Amino acid sequence: MIIRGASVVTPEGVLSSDIAVEGGRITAIAPELNGAGEEIDARGLTVVPGLIDVHVHFNEPGRTEWEGAATGSSALAAGGGTLFFDMPLNSSPCTVNAAAFDAKRAALERASYTDFALWGGIVPGNRDALPELAKRGAIGFKAFMADSGLPEFPRSDDRTLYEAMRVAARLGLPVAVHAENNELLGAPGRSIREYLDSRPVLAEIEAIRRAALLAREGGAKLHIVHISSGRGVAEALEARAHGADISIETCAHYLYFTEEDMLRLGAVAKCAPPLRPAAERDALCAALLRGEIDIVGSDHSPAPLSMKRDENFFRVWGGIAGVQSTLAVLLDRECPPEQIAAVCAANPAQRFGIPGKGRIAVGNDADFTLVDLDSHYTVTADSLLQRHRLSPYVGARFRGVVRRTILRGETVFEDGKIVGEPRGRMVKTTHATSRIHA
Q1: Do residue 56 and residue 152 come from a single domain?
Q2: Residue 37: per-residue pLDDT
Q3: CA 20 to 30 Å from 54, out of 45, 108, 120, 176?
């Protein structure tokens, strides 16, 4: 395959070039390449590295009626993604031991249209399972510092988290945390306003500070998921300045929506941490454009409509369905294409040690998406490829139409439709140490 005349995006800049692909890998990047085989006319299009979404809940096996790998990866590909990291919940069983990991890997290999990696889980009592999860190929370990909403995935107290971090450090794998101080969360109420008030920014800031201290003392690499506020980013940067090996993730919905949108939209916009006031959203966007945020994911966490209906807002299942809209939001926030290539591809691949992914470079996997930056579209329910076509983005108008998504040299999405059969593979990190049996 040769892709002709595209604007090729790298974290360093954009160049006009052809891309040659053979055997699923990029073999040359240069103007006017010679070669035989399929040719794709990409003049007028921008080629971006396939997005790597490090934070999704595709819930397979066990809760595929919420979302599954087939529909979730289809939506990812429609948004320009080629690799996702599936969280250890809300699948059932949760991925907290080797047997659950094996079951999830087998299910995703059967169903996924894109490549994937798997997080292992940290819960009280499973410290001794972490080496076996690492041996199986876990990309890292995820813990909740606040109630997860699932009894089978309880939050980690400080001792559990610290001990797990020491094990993770020995294994060479990062620990990702949902950073909210459980003791600072307010008592349950009923209204949307009460929900917003019950989860203050302070709970996020304090938990980031505490997690960073535990990671620093335990020698672990720390990944803070879905930071929702500008002040949260500032706290993480402060921790980094004091020696924490920390990476900063936010999600598209925190860059796009505010708490006023949650009040307007209701259950479809419920998430934890919640959407923030406009000043915090704007500070988060400014931090992104300054290069202070390492990774942008989706935290795609859908549920059936029946779980989104309750007169008591606290009982509504939280989670925003947005895996198809990350690229669109970043373009809307005026994030330059080369920065998108960094926060959605190069940085995830580097931070989590995934060789051959994340960059359009000779020798790497031919994972990329062809985007028409001059075209605009409106998100409709019918345009969403996820299982439940509920999303706060429905009705939003964006620029940047994904024309084609290519995984290892094969088209998986083109002109609004998935192409071919599931062909996703599990990727592994190179950061795991040889001491995974310890």
Answers
A1: yes
A2: 82
A3: 45
